[in-house]
C-alpha cells in the first residue's frame, strides 16, 4: 500500500476485540500481533474515512454452541438452510471481551458498526448479516454510509481473516466497491485456512496488499 491513497478510500477495521485474541474465548491465531500495526496505521491519518465493526452478541446467541444442547464448539449445523458454525460464547454485549481493543487509539474512527446483535442471526460481514429466517441477508447500513461520503474503495483488516474479514471484503466487492485485504494486519482463526482464503480473494478479484 505504498501508492498514494485516494480520498475516496475507506479503512474498515473488523472486530479488533479481545475475545478474538490470545486469552479470549474465541482466540484467533496470533490475533494480538495486529494491534500495534493497526494503532500505527490509524496514527498516520492516511484514510479520510475509518470504520470499525464490532461483534456484539446477546447472551444465548444462536451461533453459540451452548445454545444447542449436545453440540460442541466448531461443529456445523444447518440454520435457515445454510451451514452455521457453532462458536464458543464470545463478544457478549457489555463484556470486556467485546470492547474495541484498548491497545488501539480509536480517536480516528468515524463510525462503529455493531453486528450480531440479533439473537437469531449470525453476522460475519460488516455490510450484511448472515442469512436469517426469511432467507435474506439484511444490510447493516455500512454500504449506504460509505456511498454518502463518496467512498468507492475499501481496505479491510482485522479478525478473523478467514471469516469476518473475508466476508466483509467479499460483500464490499459484490456491492460495487473496489476491495483489498491488508494481509499483514489480519489473522485467521487457524493458519491452515490461509491458502484457501488467498485463493478465494484472488479468484474474486479482491486485492491482497500489505499496510507497510
Spell out the CATH superfamily: Isochorismatase-like
DSSP helix fraction? 10-25%
Q: What structural class is derived from the secondary structure elements?
A: alpha/beta
Label the CATH architecture: 3-Layer(aba) Sandwich
Low-confidence stretches: none
Characterization of the model:
The protein is of the alpha/beta class and 212 residues long. It is globular. It has helices spanning 35-44, 142-148, 164-174, 194-203, and strands spanning 9-14, 49-55, 76-79, 82-85, 111-115, 153-159, 178-187, 207-209. The longest helix is centred in the C-terminal third of the chain and has 11 residues, at 164-174. The chain has a single domain, classed as Rossmann fold, CATH 3.40.50.
Amino acid at each position: 500500500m505504498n501508492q498514494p491513497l485516494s480520498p475516496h478510500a475507506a479503512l474498515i477495521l473488523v472486530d479488533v476485540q479481545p475475545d478474538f485474541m490470545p486469552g479470549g474465548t474465541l482466540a484467533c491465531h496470533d490475533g494480538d500481533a495486529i494491534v500495534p500495526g493497526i494503532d500505527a496505521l490509524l496514527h498516520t491519518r492516511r484514510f479520510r474515512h475509518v470504520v470499525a465493526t464490532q461483534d456484539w452478541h446477546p447472551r444465548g446467541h444462536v451461533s453459540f454452541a451452548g445454545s444447542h444442547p449436545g453440540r460442541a464448539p466448531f461443529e456445523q449445523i444447518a440454520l435457515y438452510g445454510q451451514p452455521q458454525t457453532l462458536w464458543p460464547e464470545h463478544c457478549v454485549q457489555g463484556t470486556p471481551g467485546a470492547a474495541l481493543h484498548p491497545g488501539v487509539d480509536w480517536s480516528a474512527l468515524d463510525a462503529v458498526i455493531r453486528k450480531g446483535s440479533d439473537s437469531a442471526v449470525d453476522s460475519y460481514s460488516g455490510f450484511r448479516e448472515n442469512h436469517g429466517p426469511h432467507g435474506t441477508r439484511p444490510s447493516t447500513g455500512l454500504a449506504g454510509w460509505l456511498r454518502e461520503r463518496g467512498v468507492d474503495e475499501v481496505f479491510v483488516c482485522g479478525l478473523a481473516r478467514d471469516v469476518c474479514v473475508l466476508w466483509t471484503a467479499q460483500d464490499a466487492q459484490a456491492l460495487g466497491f473496489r476491495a483489498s485485504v491488508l494481509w499483514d494486519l489480519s489473522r485467521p482463526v487457524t493458519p491452515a485456512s490461509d491458502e484457501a482464503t488467498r485463493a478465494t480473494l484472488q479468484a474474486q478479484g479482491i486485492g491482497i496488499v500489505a499496510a507497510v
